[in-house]
Amino acid sequence: MLKKIVPMAAILASLLTLGGCATESAKPMPQPSLYQRLGGRQAIDAVVSDAIGNISADARINQRFAGIGGTQLNKNLVDLLCARSGGPCIYTGLDMSAAHEGMNIRNDEFDALVQDMVKSLDRFKVPAREKGEVLFILGKMKNAVIGH
Ligand code: HEM
C-alpha cells in the first residue's frame, strides 16, 4: 500500500510544480510605457526644446508666443508629455483649457504646432509607433486648446 501512495504523492507533487510553472509563465510581461520607449525625460526634453525652436521660427504661429519666456513653457510641456506618456513627472501648469482661454486658437494654428512637433520627432528619429502615440496624446487635447 505504501508503495502505491509514494509514487502517487510524487506524481501529485510534480503536477503541482508544473502547474505553478505554467501559471508563472502565463503572466504577461509588463510592457514598457511610452515614456520609457521614448527614452525618458531627457529624450522628451530634447524633442520639446527642438520643437520650441521650430515654433519660434514658424511665422504661422510665432506671434502667439511673442513676449512669453520659453523656459517655463518648455518645462511645462515636458512635464505634461512626461506625465501623459506614463512617466513619473507631475504637471503643475494650468489645464489645457485654462492655459489657452481667451486666445481663440484656430484649427490651422493647432495643426501648425503639431507639424512643428512632428519635425522634431522626425529629427530625433522617434519610431513610427511612438510618434503615433505622442500625436494621439496631442490630438486628444485639441478640443481643450482651440476655439475659446
Ligand atoms: C496640443 C497642443 C498644445 C499643447 C500640448 C500646449 C501646451 C501648453 C502648455 C503646457 C502651456 C503652459 C500652461 C501654463 O503656463 O500653465 C501652454 C501655454 C501656451 N500655449 Fe499652448 N499648447 C498647445 C497648443 C497651442 C497652440 C496651437 C498655440 C498657439 C498657436 C498655443 C499657445 C500657447 C500660448 C501663447 C501659451 C502661453 C500662455 C501664457 O503663458 O500666458 N498653444 N500651452
Description of the structure:
- The chain is mainly alpha-helical.
- Helix 3 packs across helix 4.
- It has eight helices and no strands.
- It has a single domain, classed as Globin-like (Orthogonal Bundle).
- The longest helix has 25 residues.
- Helices cover 68% and strands 0% of the residues.
- Bound molecules: protoporphyrin IX containing FE.
- Protoporphyrin IX containing FE binds next to helix 4 and helix 6.
What's the main sheet like? none
CATH superfamily: Globins
The strand count comes to: 0
Mean pLDDT: 89
Going by CATH, the architecture would be Orthogonal Bundle
CATH class: Mainly Alpha
Q: Give the count of helical stretches.
A: 8
Shape: globular
Helix content: 55-70%
How much of the polypeptide forms β-strand, as a percent range? under 5%
Ligand types:
protoporphyrin IX containing FE
Low-confidence stretches: none
Class by alpha and beta content:
mainly alpha
The string of secondary-structure elements, in order, is: HHHHHHHH
Indicate the radius of gyration in whole angstroms.
25 Å
Number of domains: 1
